[in-house]
Amino acid sequence: VSTQSTGWLERKNKKAREWFVKAVKLDPDHGDTWAAYYKFTLAHGTEQELQILVDKCVQADPKHGERWCKLRKAIENWRNDGNVELMLKTCAKQLPELR
Fold this sequence. Notes:
Structural class: mainly alpha
């Protein structure tokens, strides 16, 4: 995820998007990557791109990632465990701002 973030920080949005796409294809089970990709698309994408990303994430149903696992296992989220879209949006909110 750090490589994508570097491209994002350098305003190389096309390159950053390419890295995010590659990252989620290589490891679709890593929720932190999906969350970073979601946050990037929220800032630099369209509503349609955002919905496609959410649909792909829901289909992948990620189970790993440092932040993702902490969020899934948090007691206050036990009812949301099956709601991947909600987990994605919540995890993305917890990521640091990159502008």
